[in-house]
Amino acid sequence: MGGREGGRVSLSTVRAALRGRIGRRGAALLFFAMLDVLYAGSMATAQDSGLPLNATYSWFGEVLPLTAWALLWLSVGLICAYHAFRHYDRFGFVAAIGIKVVWAILSFTGWLVDDVTLGSVAIWLGLAGLVWVISGWAEPPDPDLLPPADTGEDDSHAHRGP
Questions:
Q1: Which of 1, 40, 118, 152 could disulfide-pair with 74, CB 3.0 to 4.6 Å?
Q2: 95: domain range?
Q3: What is the count of structural domains for the chain?
């Protein structure tokens, strides 16, 4: 039924369509977009949760209001999502790296002068490094556009029948 099971589009069909449309780099940008948007949502709702803020959020709340940080993270997530569907995706990777490096540097400052954990620095620098590595990957060639594989047989000597 063309990828439909019981009137629904299967996950494998969606995955194949996205893979053909966005490639591995785009898929990575969509993952980082999701991460950034969820982190933005966490910050946007942290003060209204009624729970005490963790040390990282408390520190960043002293630098800028958490809603401002949430908007910044949301913006980066939307930039990543937009560029996931573009051939020229460099700006999406730059935005994804940039916010994480800024967050790591400010987390390090918070570790020096406040109660932010050093683990926060490592996590965000590690993620920035991962984004940087992925940004250098080339997309694998489209197998439909490659010439047929050479089988090693010489067609001029092939048996063609009686």
A1: 40
A2: 22-138
A3: 1
